[in-house]
Design goal:
Helices cover 37% and strands 16% of the residues. By secondary structure, the chain is an alpha/beta fold. It has two domains: 167 residues, 2-Layer Sandwich (Ribosomal Protein S5, domain 2), CATH 3.30.230.10; 312 residues, P-loop containing nucleotide triphosphate hydrolases (Rossmann fold, 3-Layer(aba) Sandwich). Bound molecules: zinc ion. The site of zinc ion has 7 residues, from loops.
């Protein structure tokens, strides 16, 4: 007869609810049962635990073993419960000293040889454990990621390591320093390497400053992707809390957490053949998709009209809420997905409408059809859409002057963002209609210009508000409290698709 109680956590989305593991040994025929809504991988744990205990030179008790994972109504998946189950059996059979096992949390999949294997989703668990004040044991490969949470972390390579550590009461690993962060922009993609493109770079700066979604329209080879890749480097570095959110997504996917990229904004560029599941997440065990991997960073969709409409349709919910809820038969998972969208498209099916170097043979009707592939609701959420043209050849020569470096633009962006956060606690792109009315302080001339443009173009009510948001950002970049005529005029110039298609 013996009982041991240990703690671990399940993984649901990026949440890590507590799981209590009770191991009970009693007389009777030798059996080994795991109860408490355990999925296949957890049930298979029996073989791994038995093998690990035997190959670590412990005895496997010839008794009736019952393992209860509570609470019983929460599904448990994966191999992470192997370690606490194995330790529970050893403690209940008095093979390891009666140390205060319940003061720790244990994570790790056991190999038949007793070695510990890394498991996905350790970071979210480590965050919860740290706030509960419990030190955690994790496989060695999960150590750096677990240490990011700032709690006490002990790493081990095998079941024997863990029992030895418990006996010796070893000091926990030193925490990985979070201040080892590098600069947000990497030298590989600096804005200074993009020659010419003054207008597009300005649009990129405004989009970065106000958190606006952006669409580039231009022929192939004009550097649309190159511009988009430079966006993360213009955005403020993530604070530790935000960086942990971003790292948690990688952790859930079982990807190594790259501490050298700490604080950098993610940049994800899924191909247009990507499925809806790849883009937003899903699967029988809900996994985050590209939009969650782009959380707090940039999602770049190149060749936007080539994405299937149904795939783009699923972007609406996360673009509205900054989160995505994935529901499968009996499971539901919630993942963060607050990203800035940059999209790019050709101006027409052949790609060369308006290009001076090539002739476009597309009919006006074909151009309209092509542009119509982007659904209205998605386009409604894109504040800035501009044409990107081929830069003059003289600007591309190696000796042509470099542009402004990303760091200089990022400084202006940071200052404009500070103004917005001070005023309303959020970026201009995410202001509600009422908040926009409150924050859109403008003089009479600029109001008159906006009225006139709204009637002449004409602007829909939504487009009208989009122009206001962008104009507000331009005024913030200029350090002006009031939105002035020049700010409205520039904002109007950043709304290419509000105008009719010009076919030469
Ligand atoms: Zn064409």
């Amino acid at each position: 007869m013996g009982l041991a109680i240990l703690h671990c956590r399940a993984q649901i989305g990026v949440d890590a609810p507590s799981v209590t593991i009770e191991v009970f040994l009693s007389g009777g025929l030798p059996t080994f049962n795991i109860v408490g809504l355990a999925e296949t991988a957890v049930r298979e744990s029996k073989d791994r635990v038995r093998g690990a205990i035997l190959s670590s030179n412990f005895d496997f008790p010839q008794e009736r073993i019952t393992v209860n994972l509570g609470p019983a109504d929460m599904k448990k998946t994966g191999g992470r419960f192997d370690l606490p189950i194995g330790l529970g059996i050893l403690a209940a059979s008095r093979q390891i000293p009666d140390v205060a096992l319940h003061g720790y949390e244990f994570y790790g999949e056991l190999g038949l040889d007793g070695n510990l294997r890394a498991v996905p989703g350790v970071l979210p668990a480590a965050i919860k454990a740290a706030s509960a004040g419990r030190p955690i044991f994790v496989p060695k490969d999960n150590g750096p990621e677990a240490a990011l949470a700032g709690g006490q972390v002990l790493v081990a390579e095998s079941l024997l390591d863990v029992t030895a550590l418990l006996r010796s009461r070893k000091e926990p690993l030193p925490f990985v320093s979070l201040t080892a962060a590098t600069q947000n922009h990497d030298s590989q993609s600096d804005l200074k390497d993009v020659k010419g493109q003054t207008f597009a770079k300005r649009a990129l700066e405004i989009a970065a400053a106000g958190g606006h979604n952006l669409l580039f329209i231009g022929p192939p080879g004009t550097g649309k992707s190159m511009l988009a890749q430079r966006m993360p480097g213009l955005l403020p570095t993530l604070d530790d809390e935000q960086a942990i959110e971003v790292a948690s997504i990688d952790s859930v996917l079982g990807l190594p957490v790259d501490v050298s990229r700490w604080g950098r904004r993610p940049f994800r560029a899924p191909h247009h053949t990507a499925s809806a599941v790849a883009l937003v997440g899903g699967g029988s065990e809900p996994r985050p998709g590209e939009i969650s991997r782009a959380h707090r960073g940039v999602l770049f969709l190149d060749e936007l009209p080539e994405f299937s409409r149904s795939v783009l349709e699923v972007l609406r919910e996360p673009m509205e809420r900054g989160r995505i809820t994935i529901s499968r038969a009996r499971r539901q998972a919630d993942f963060p997905a607050s990203f800035q969208l940059i999209a790019a498209m050709n101006p027409c099916p052949c790609g060369y409408l308006g290009d001076k170097q090539s002739n476009c043979r597309c009919s006006a009707e074909a151009v309209r059809r092509y542009r119509g592939k982007i659904s209205g609701p998605l386009l409604d959420r894109i504040d800035i859409h501009i044409e990107v043209n081929r830069p003059a050849v003289a600007l591309l020569r190696p000796d042509a002057p470099c542009g402004e470096p990303s760091a200089a633009v990022a400084a202006r962006v940071a200052s404009a963002r500070q103004k917005q956060v001070f005023r309303s606690g959020k970026t201009n792109a995410t202001l509600s209609g009422a908040e926009l009315n409150r924050d859109y302080v403008a003089n009479d001339e600029s109001l008159a210009l906006l009225e006139k443009a709204a009637n002449a173009i004409p602007l829909s009510a939504r487009a009208y508000q989009r122009v206001q948001r962008v104009a507000r950002t331009i005024a913030d970049l200029a350090g002006e409290a009031d939105v002035q005529v020049k700010h409205v005029a520039e904002a109007l110039s950043l709304r290419q698709l509000d105008r009719k298609i010009a076919k030469p």
